[in-house]
Each structure stands twice: as structure tokens, then as C-alpha cells.
Amino acid sequence: MNSKHQFVQLSDGHFIPGLGFGTYKPQEVPNSKTTEATKIAIEAGFRHIDCAYVYQVEEEVGQAVRSKIADGTVKRQDIFYTSKLWCTFHRPELVQSSLERSLKKLHFDYVDLYLIHYPFSMKPGEELFPKDENGKTIYDHVDLCAVWEAMEKCKDAGLAKSIGVSNFNRRQLEMILNKPGLKYKPVCNQVECHIYHNQRKLLDFCKSKNIVLVAYSALGTQREKPWVDQSSPVLLDDPILGALAKKHKRSPALIALRYQLQRGVVVLAQSFKENEIKENIQVFDFELTAEDMKDLDGLNRNYRYLAAEFGADHPNYPFADEY
Ligand SMILES: NC(=O)c1ccc[n+]([C@@H]2O[C@H](COP(=O)([O-])OP(=O)(O)OC[C@H]3O[C@@H](n4cnc5c(N)ncnc54)[C@H](OP(=O)(O)O)[C@@H]3O)[C@@H](O)[C@H]2O)c1
């Protein structure tokens, strides 16, 4: 990593900014909030934007980026934009056209990073969460290596500068890494990662293979009802995080973000609030000591806020393995 923004070099030679702006939003939040917040984030200094087809806000994010290009704040090449392949588009013949759909919504020629969002596949079609008449998810069964080969073609076509995965466990990463004829390895694995689930083993494995770990829900998620158990601990209320915040005269959110940067993890932070967005970019302005890092490591309890059940009855469900 180098100074100020702390860019991390990916195995394919491209650079990813160490802090990214998260754009997932619950359905009841109006899409216009995303346009507004993304513009604020770019003005505040964010240069890495994390999105996905399934978030259904790529039009709004594209609009925000283009307006910040039009007013001279940034150029397209200053922005690192991530999109993700949704589970209903895993069939190899659907992969590139799915990316092209995202690009059309964004009005971009390329994405900086394209990820396989989850390792399990769902029935192809327009429905994002296909269900049968009993309300059960309708899955699909696609060889992950074949999905990966289609991702490689997107990179070769110049539609994605880099390609990677999300929510893969070690076994699934190894399957791709050991694929005969592998052309490009995944540059990153984006997973839930925070003080209560610090992914130490997965992080060590990724580092040993030159795969960057990207942390989502580093602030403890948006605590959205259908996805997060409302009785789960509120991460930003953790007393040790609070004590370190006091010590460094920074907010608990900044301590939680800084923790990831200092362990070589690229970290995402979501917010719709201007004051929080402006605060989060200050993560580059201070340092935690080795002892602080040890205290934060001590909070790990392998607690997962998200996706505990989503995909659980698919053979590629990633979270049944130890890591
Ligand atoms: N690959 C995947 O499967 C996956 C899954 C989940 C998320 N993601 C990505 O990761 C991003 C971030 O994760 P997330 O959406 O779960 O949320 P998060 O970043 O863990 O937490 C967001 C919440 O933290 C609070 N917050 C933010 N900055 C703060 C500050 N400075 N002080 C106090 N509170 C602050 C905000 O709550 P208030 O607004 O209430 O203050 C916000 O709702 C997503 O938006 C998405 O891009 C990817």
C-alpha cells in the first residue's frame, strides 16, 4: 500500500483504493438517495465504489459518477467501480450479456472489477430471487469453473479490467486456482469481515495466493430486517471499540475501518449521511498501535451478520466450511 488513499496492487497489475463506498440499500430507501450519497462520497474523496446488478441502483450510481465527471471533479479513470454477476446469470452464455446490461445502465464502457457475487446459482430469468409456488428458492447448477471461464472472457473483451469473486470459501477459491488452463486468477474475494468475524484464516490463505480480501459489512451492516437478526450485537456499540475511539479521539466507525486497512484488507463503508461519509474518508489520517490491533483481534467470535441462511440448501453454499 502507498500513501494517502492507500492503493493496493492486484495480481493483474491494477490498483484498488483501500477504502470503498458501499451502495447497497434496502428497498424502501428511494433510489435518489443513492445518487445523492454517491456524489457526496466522490466530493469527499472516495474513488472506489462498490455496487452490483442485484442492488438495482447501477443507473443512479452511473448518473452520480457521470455528473462528477461533467463538473470536473474526477475523470472516469480516477474511479474504481465494482459490479457483480448475480446468481441468475451464472450460465456461461449469460455472463457477458449480464455485464453488458450493467454497463448500459451505468453508461460506462468498462467496469474496473467484476465479481461472481455468490458461488451458488439460481434459475435464469428476469426474477432476481426466483421462487416456486411454495416460496422455495429455485436453484440452478452450474460448474463454477465454467462461470469463471466466462468471467475471463469479459476481461479479454475489455469490459472488466479485473475479475474476482465474492463469498467464496477456501475450497471454492482453490477449485478456481487449480482449474486446468486457468488464464487469470481471481484478484480478490469480497466477504463479510469485521471485528466479530475477522476472517483470519481466509485472510492468511488469500494473502498466500496474492488474492486481496475485500471486507463488506465492516461497520456491522445496515441491520436490515429480513437479513439481519435484530437481536444481534450492534458492532459500533462494542465497548473495546468505544475505548479505542476515545483513546484516538476518533469514532468507533473509524477504528473499525482502520483495523481492516492495517491488516492489509480493502474495506467498504456504506452511509447515506453526509457527516458519516465525510468522516469515513479520515481513515487514512491516523494509526492504531500493535497493541490496539491485538485488542481488536481479540474481539473475533466468527459471528456472521449476513447470509446465514441464504443459499444454505444449495451444494455450493459457502459458509458451511470452517473458512
Ligand atoms: N458481496 C456481498 O455479498 C456484499 C454483502 C453486503 C454488503 N456488500 C457491500 O458492502 C457495502 C457495505 O456493507 P453494508 O451495506 O452491510 O454496511 P456497513 O458499511 O457495514 O454499515 C453501514 C452502516 O454503518 C453506519 N455508519 C456508516 N458510517 C458511519 C459513521 N461514520 N459513524 C456511525 N455510523 C456509521 C450507517 O448507519 P446509519 O446510516 O444508521 O448511521 C450505515 O447504515 C454494501 O453497501 C455493499 O456495497 C457486499
Automatic annotation (TrEMBL):
Ranges for domain NADP-dependent oxidoreductase: 19-300
Marked site: Lowers pKa of active site Tyr: K84
Binding site for substrate: H117
GO molecular function annotations of the record: oxidoreductase activity
Alphabetic keyword roster: NADP, Oxidoreductase
A Pfam family of this chain: Aldo_ket_red
UniProt xrefs under SUPFAM superfamilies: NAD(P)-linked oxidoreductase
Highest taxon listed in the record's lineage: Eukaryota
CDD domains in UniProt: AKR_AKR1C1-35
InterPro entries documented for this protein: AKR, AKR1C, Aldo/ket_reductase_CS, NAD(P)_OxRdtase_dom_sf, NADP_OxRdtase_dom
List of catalytic residues: Y55 (proton donor)
Family, per entry: Belongs to the aldo/keto reductase family.
Protein name as annotated: NADP-dependent oxidoreductase domain-containing protein
Source organism of the structure: Marmota monax (Woodchuck)
